[in-house]
Amino acid sequence: MLTPQFDSIKPGESIPPLSQELASQLTRMKNKKKMELLPFESHTLTGQFRREIDSAARRIHVLVAKSGRQGIDVDIIQENFSFDNSVLVEALKKLEKLKRIEWIDDSKVILSENLAKISGKTYDIYVEKVIQGRALVIVNGKWHARLNHYDYEGPRELLKKGSEFRAVAELYSNDGVFSLRVKQIV
Q1: Assessment of whether the complete model's pTM goes beyond 0.70
Q2: Domain check: are 110 and 144 in the same one?
Q3: How large is the average pLDDT for residues 27-37?
Q4: Are 145 and 178 in contact (CB under 8 A)?
């Protein structure tokens, strides 16, 4: 498009000014690009913002997991962590896209895996000690049990010394060792 005009220019000659039509086309293209980039704030493109979203998503996931089957209100999440609104929204979108959470209604979220009804007995679990590959827990405040890594699929953040949670679980004996298999956090 521009080539025929510039083929006739000899070295050392000045380049003719752009025609009015070409200048207006360039202006429209620049404005169009600006309009496309307008919804993206400058900090959304930075690595720092992505790290904030990832961190927020992990923290939100743990909080939602602790809430169990009843879910948790987004306002409570905002109060607990005091994220920027843009970070909170993007973290929730990320968790939803990864199919880790689902919306119960307009303001409550729940873990996707907690929507399925799992049959079994509900126990109160207290994590007494964490060892590589397993945790030693107290079930319902009276039984000591072992929780092996292959018997637990919940968030790792719940398996810290001193943490408490409720779960639908199954108690069994494994070579004379009283063990626990967690089916679902409630």
Answers
A1: no
A2: no
A3: 56
A4: yes
